[in-house]
Amino acid sequence: MTSPPSQSNGNTGSHLKIPKIKFTKLFINGEFVDSLSGKAFEAIDPRNEEVITRVAQGEKGDVDLAVKAARQAFDNGPWPRFSGTKRRRVLLKLADLIEENGEELAALDTLNAGKLFSEGKVTDIPSTAGYFRYYAGAADKIHGTTLKSSSELQAYTLCEPIGVVGLIILWNYPAQIFGFKVAAALAAGCTVIVKPAEQTPLSALFYAHLAKLAGVPDGVVNVITGFGSTVGAAISSHMDIDKVSFTGSTEVGREIMQAAATSNLKPVSLELGGKSPFIVFDDVDVDKVSDLGLAGVTYNKGEVCVAGSRVFVQEGIYDKFVEKVVAKAKAKVVGDPFDPNVQQGPQASKKQYEKILSYIEHGKKEGATLLTGGKPLDRKGYFIQPTIFTDVTDDMLIAKEEIFGPVMPILKFKTVEEVIKRANDTKYGLVAGIMTNDWNIANTVSRSIKAGSIWINCYMNIEADCPFGGYKMSGFDTDLGMEGLYKYLQLKSVATPVFNSPWL
Ligand code: NAI
Ligand code: MG
Questions:
Q1: CATH number of the domain where residue 63 is located
Q2: What is the CATH number of the domain that holds 403?
Q3: Model pTM greater than 0.90?
Q4: Which of 114, 273, 456, 497 would staple 345 via disulfide (CB 3.0–4.6 Å)?
Q5: Whose CA is nearest to atom 11 of ligand 1?
Q6: What integer pLDDT is reported at residue 150 of this predicted model?
Q7: Do 171 and 298 fall into the same domain?
Q8: Which of 252, 350, 384, 403 gets mutated to test ligand 1 (max ligand atoms within 8 A of its CB)?
Q9: DSSP string covering 5-22, please?
Q10: Catalytically annotated residues
Q11: Each residue of 376-405: b (16+ CB within 10 Å) or e?
Q12: Do residue 88 and residue 132 come from a single domain?
């Protein structure tokens, strides 16, 4: 996600390499172990709906064991007590190992999530290594402030690691979201229990193996694979987990907050859905902006929380934009994500595939005009054609809800004031794209839109040092940037008399 999406997939034609699956067990206290129940669930290949392998199915008892290990590693182990410099060294080693194993890691997410192998190699995996390097560099720069320095009293703050952290993640970016959260939490000195999505459990287990190789002590990183209603719920309601950070749907974000509220009041950070406006003004180069607009909603087959899935186009350029974008969508190559010529792979899961197709049906029923796509490919697997709707109105479901698929609803607008009002008329507020050469417009709109990230004449520029998080029901707190580290720190203030205390 760190580079702007492009139509080229960057593959240099290297041979197709489907890895042998090495890790399918839970990772607790530095060891791969079976689940207590002995149960396992299927990891599915979305290209052909076949079972890749079976993965240990953790449940509450397994979460308890992981928490025990993480608690011991936090309360008595070396990791939180290491100097920042020492944590930095380990995290840098881990980043190197991620890069060295880049092909295999990319292939796991292609196999299990349908992501383009070429993108994985050039974007997802290098970015993930980059997040570890960024936070490695922060690990020895964590410090508080001096608050008072009068002749009577001095006070200062300490930033302490918050403790045992639960990280619940999703299936669309298994590598990068793991990187956002684990790198920051480890740099802060926390210990973690990671719960990858049940749709994409494989790569998190590989990262855990690499963490051990890099020298992360046992118990500091634990991975429990399994389902949300069991493993996820056990994490968010656990009395001995000090914080939860989540990326996923708004509904589950709400459940996690409730579980935290009715257990130990642990703080939660939520990165939730979006329905982000991609706004195109009359003065742009239509050819270039239609590329970016299409990529903004079809990149990673549209399974992106920041998808620009309400495309507002100003009336003067509207017809030209529609013509270009439709031609480009028709030319897009959908197919096997291991194939270097393919530009869009299958949706990650059957559930997601069916959900997208049902939104497309809604769009048709509500009276939007389907200009291209709208159908699954006539083959096995969860493939959907890039789909474009025009004549979309703000009240249609396809303009209001997160589709999370390669579906572009296009909306026409006249004035700056109008588009600001319409763009903000949503329960979400994750990001917004503004395409214009007029800096007055760019400045006005960027300050008026209620969204956590604004991209002017670029899109999806998620970078390690730019805080990333939402307004409104897109959640709160940020990943990335130094703010993404602070949320794993507990602030403490210490005060003391400078000279003899009058109280002693
Ligand atoms: P989800 O929110 O159900 O799943 C995300 C993670 O939460 C998974 O690891 C899951 O096991 C876990 N989880 C589920 N129920 C839980 C619970 N009660 N307590 C704790 N953890 C729980 O996402 P889902 O159902 O796979 O996707 C549904 C829709 O959500 C998508 O179609 C998309 O619109 C949206 N979504 C948005 C994402 C984003 O990046 N903002 C990511 C994933 C989904
Ligand atoms: Mg769900």
A1: 3.40.605.10
A2: 3.40.309.10
A3: yes
A4: 114
A5: 228
A6: 82
A7: no
A8: 252
A9: --SS-----PPP-PPPP-
A10: 271, 305
A11: beeeebbbbbbbbbbbbeeebebbebbbbb
A12: yes
Beta bridge partners of 193: 166, 222
In a domain, 502, yes or no: no
- pLDDT, residue 252, reads 98
247 CB within 6 A, ligand 1: yes
Distances 500 to 117, 147, 154, 466 between C-alpha atoms, Å: 66, 19, 12, 46
Q: Write out the two tokens for 366.
A: 């509500």
Sheet of 26-28, strands arranged across: 31-33, 26-28, 221-223, 191-195, 164-168, 243-247, 268-271, 475-476
Task: State the DSSP code for 334.
Answer: B
Q: Are residues 408 and 485 in the same domain?
A: no
Same domain membership, residue 321 and residue 258: no
What was the pLDDT predicted at 17?
A: 66
The reply to whether 104 falls in a domain is: yes
Residues 190 and 257 reside in one and the same domain? yes
CA of 125 to the centre of ligand 1 (A): 22
Q: What gap in Å lies between CA 195 and CA 235, rounded to an integer?
A: 9
User: Quick check: is 51 in a domain?
Assistant: yes
233 and 284 inside one domain: no
Quick check: 57 and 68 in contact, CB under 8 A?
A: no
Domain span at residue 310 reads 277-463
pLDDT average per 10 residues of sequence, the chain (504 residues): 38 59 98 98 98 98 99 98 98 98 97 97 98 98 91 93 98 98 98 98 98 98 98 98 98 98 98 97 98 98 98 98 98 97 98 98 98 97 98 98 98 98 98 98 98 98 97 98 97 92 78
- The number of the ligand nearest the C-alpha atom of 273 reads 1
Residue 502 is predicted with a pLDDT of: 77
Residue 503 confidence (pLDDT): 78
CA within 13 Å, CB half, 167: 28
Whether 504 maps to a domain, the answer reads: no
Q: How many angstroms separate the Cα of 144 from the Cα of each of 155, 158, 160, 477, 494?
A: 11, 5, 9, 20, 10
Query: What is the C-alpha separation between 157 and 147, in angstroms, rounded?
Result: 7
- Return the residue whose CA atom lies nearest to atom 21 of ligand 1: 232
Could you tell me if 254 and 219 are in contact, meaning their C-beta atoms sit under 8 angstroms apart?
no
Strands (E), 121-163: 146-149, 153-161
Strand partners, 269: 245
Same domain assignment for residues 65 and 118: yes
The total domain count for the chain is 2
Which protein residue's CA is at the shortest distance from atom 35 of ligand 1? 249
Atom of ligand 1 nearest to the CA of 271: 41
Q: What pLDDT, on the 0 to 100 scale, is given for residue 500?
A: 80
* Pocket flag, ligand 1, residue 233 (CB < 6 Å): yes
Q: Tokens 């240990």 sit at which residue?
A: 56
Residue 152 pLDDT: 87
